[in-house]
Amino acid sequence: MQTILGAGGAIGGPLAKELRAYTDQIRLVSRKPQKVNEGDILHPADLTDRNEVFRAVEGSEVVYLVIGFPYNIKIWSKEWPALMRNTIDACKQYKARLVFFDNVYMYDRNAIPHMTEESPINPSSKKGRVRAEIAQLLLDEIKQGGLTALIARAADFYGPVKGNTSVLNELVFKNLQKGKRANWFASADKKHTYTYVPDAAKGTAILGNTADAYNQVWHLPTNPNGLTGREFVALFGKHMKMDAKLSVMPQWMASAVGLFVPIMKELAEMFYQYDRDYIFDSGKFNRRFNFRPAEYEAGVIDTVRNG
């Protein structure tokens, strides 16, 4: 049995499709899970409840923790450490391997122009400190020998995804769909890499089913040839057959708007990821699995057609 905790999010569905290459026993866990594959086992659960986490994990060989909590530091600070602790304890009790789908918020801001698995951990945001805490909790358990696990990190992602968890989808693609200007943060002239969701899902499934991939950190496959914000907006405009306009928001404006729009208050502390190049290096994964990440134009075309 392979179990996805957070199956209703952006990664859960694509991951369930990829896991069919390895097993026909897939358990989908979320508040209201829906089948992705015909044989999926649906397990409704509130993953903020420790007992329900244990029930969801029981009988699993591999557990994928891919849940996405609302983008709110109060929720993250309360729910993430508890969920990580409960998931670790459940996996230890039932001898399940754990795959944690992570992001890059914990890295030092000076590492952003070239992030690798060895980049220094020194978060400069509140959300980054939460991510550093839960990642370290997992790594400490691995080091103590009581847990077999791995961390699979992705950059900001894009593609035909569910929900509103992709900044590129929300601020560029969906704004253009509505006839609005595309939005960008800080500077539209810095290079930015994005992880294509189908690549992230395939990479996560590969790692979860590769014995020697465990007990280490991996960057999920991401094309390193980033584009600038202007280039991304132009690319979406090209394939949406429209003259795409762009508006760039400085950090001071996001902070001001945040007084009235809560999500902008949450995003303001992350502007350092846009005022410099943001290059996510997945060379370790690409070499190990002979993987070629999608070209950005192919990913944009897929997003426009199926997003």
Helix count? 11
CATH class of the largest domain: Alpha Beta
Rough outline = globular
The CATH superfamily of the largest domain is known as NAD(P)-binding Rossmann-like Domain
Strand order of the largest sheet: 3-2-1-4-5-6-11
Radius of gyration: 19 Å
The largest β sheet comes out as:
7 strands, parallel
Estimate percent helicity. Answer: 40-55%
Q: What is the domain tally?
A: 2
Q: Tell me the β content.
A: 15-25%
CATH fold assignment of the largest domain: Rossmann fold
Mind telling me which CATH architecture of the largest domain this is?
3-Layer(aba) Sandwich
Oligomer: single chain
Instruction: Give the class from helix and strand content and strand pairing.
Output: alpha/beta
InterPro entries: Epimerase_deHydtase, Lipid_A_modif_metabolic_enz, NAD(P)-bd_dom_sf
Protein name: NAD-dependent epimerase/dehydratase family protein
Domain NAD-dependent epimerase/dehydratase: 4-210
Pfam family, one: Epimerase
Describe the 3D structure:
Helix 2 crosses helix 3 (73-94) and helix 8 runs antiparallel to helix 9. The protein has helices at residues 12-19, 50-57, 73-94, 126-144, 167-177, 197-208, 229-240, 251-257, 262-268, 283-289, 296-306, and strands spanning 2-5, 26-30, 41-44, 62-65, 97-102, 149-153, 157-158, 182-185, 191-192, 195-196, 217-219, 227-228, 246-249. It is built from eleven helices and 13 strands. By secondary structure, it is of the alpha/beta class. Helices cover 40% and strands 15% of the residues. The strands form four sheets. A seven-stranded parallel β-sheet has the order 3-2-1-4-5-6-11, sandwiched between helices. Strands 7-10 form a two-stranded parallel sheet. Helix 1 (12-19) links the parallel strand 1 and strand 2. It has two domains: 2-156 and 194-219, Rossmann fold (3-Layer(aba) Sandwich); 164-193 and 225-279 and 295-306, UDP-galactose 4-epimerase, domain 1 (Alpha-Beta Complex). The two termini are 30 Å apart. It is globular and about 55 Å long. It holds the Pfam family Epimerase. Residues 4-210 form the NAD-dependent epimerase/dehydratase domain.
